[in-house]
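Researcher: Re-running this chain for the archive, since the previous output was lost when a drive failed. Same request as before.
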Amino acid sequence: MTTLYTSIASRRLWAVLLLLLPHTCIATSTPQLQAVPVQEAGGFTFRFEGGIRFPKKASGVSSLPYTSGAFFVKSVEGEDKIWIAGKAKEFAIAQYTLPEPVASTKVADYPLAIQQQPFTAVGPAGLRNDANRVTGMAVSDGRLFVNVAEYYDAGGDNLNTTVVAADAFNLSASLGPVFKTITGKAHAAGWITPVPAVFQSLLGGDQIMGNASNFPIALRHSIGPSMYIVNSNDVVTTDPKGTIPALPVIDYSLKSPLHPDQYNESGTNDMWTVVSKAFTGFLHVKSRSYMVVGSSGGHHSGLGYKIDQDNGNRCPGPCAKVHTDYQNYFWRYEMDAALSAPLPSLIEPVAYGELPLFTHDELIYGAYYQAEKQRLYLLLREADTTHPAPLPLLLVYHLAWNGPQPDIKDTQ
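Model: Regenerated structure tokens:
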């Protein structure tokens, strides 16, 4: 069997996973390898439960190498199912059954997910000036909701943001390019997560849609993680020529970013920079907060645009001055503060910072929180090097709140 010693990158991940095993503490000379089996961050405890791999071969019009990172997990009849986007440019989705994660020092020991549905196209692949990337998805009442974006929307005028497949368990017969537009467009059309029942009457919807400046052309994005409240029935019933209603609770812009010093010229911006990305945001009942997970960079060395980094690499766009100055990150918002803010941009996270769950050489590329099991799934894009072409790796964490228990009676 192939172990993590097959490459330098693999050896790094091996060291991290070894550190993640309970009661294990092994020193390493690589500074990025600072992971522990139990990590505290933002009032939460992250406890590593194990990893899951994906098979090399896939059926359908795409495959998993170079995935766009968007996925959704749901328990169905006692089994965990994942809907996941394929290769970014191929604009397709498949469904797998997930085994229970296994904690091991070898990625090869992780169990394989089983493909249940072939990769099915959301729309024509490779289009320019139209939606061509999957950014988020969710299953609701048997339907698959899919948010999409145009990767390089220079004019910021793409209106195709949302697709509904009538049968999430038969994508080949129900997923097709009938696009709708969500209020806020690219500001909202990213991850989709449920609004817990206890918050639905207060917020007026049962789903959250959110996004951040994950793609080029910042003018069209929220410059910071967003949170829009949506009613799933509106997503289904809105005519393709209409606009799906959505209420912005948290939302930013170029004029009103989460942090004004996007290139960290002051050297003091530890919150959000021009290279920050967010991949999921979810409401957590016990903490009464909105937790966002992603990655960030340039907080230590500063940033530049199309510069030569310290290792001689010429960046095609914004990047950190030091090539290793990238970290996995979180941002936690208090919901009471967000709901009382006079504008959606006048709210800051109450806690934020690095999320050192594993080596920062492997940045998070997708994330989803499964509330019923209190599991946070993190997708690493190319961490499974047991195949000739690196595949994504799914790491699973149990998430527990350690802070005060807020009164949630007024949310009923």
